[in-house]
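QA checklist item 7 of 12: single-chain prediction sanity check.
[x] sequence parsed
[x] length recorded as 135
[x] structure emitted
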Amino acid sequence: MTGFAEHRSIATVALVVANYDEAISWYVDRLGFVLTEDVDLGGGKRWVTITPGNGQGARLLLAEASGDAQRHAVGNQTGGRVFLFLETDDFARDHALMLEKGVEFREAPRHETYGTVAVFADLYGNLWDLIEPKR
């Protein structure tokens, strides 16, 4: 036993964005996410969280960039690697809907030992995997 609480989870992941409202619009309209919080913190800052439509998994905190270092990180938070993994129970359905809504996939779907997957880019160029894991 490590001494840590047994039931912990990663609840929120910060995603640096160029603009709160354009990011909200893109994730809600193109990926079907739900805006769960939008709280004015004063001084131009907001606490903005979104979740997948079913509310499962970690929330994304949309954090508007402030300062040059943060602005340079927008769209490249992981140095060009896939950053986030959007898991689905129906890859074909979600892939087709995302294409219809203008999401840019960087590759054709492929079948791996762990499931069906394809890399897509968000509005800033961050790379994501859409993945239906093998069960």
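[x] summary fact logged: DSSP finds three helices and nine strands in the chain.
[ ] second reviewer sign-off
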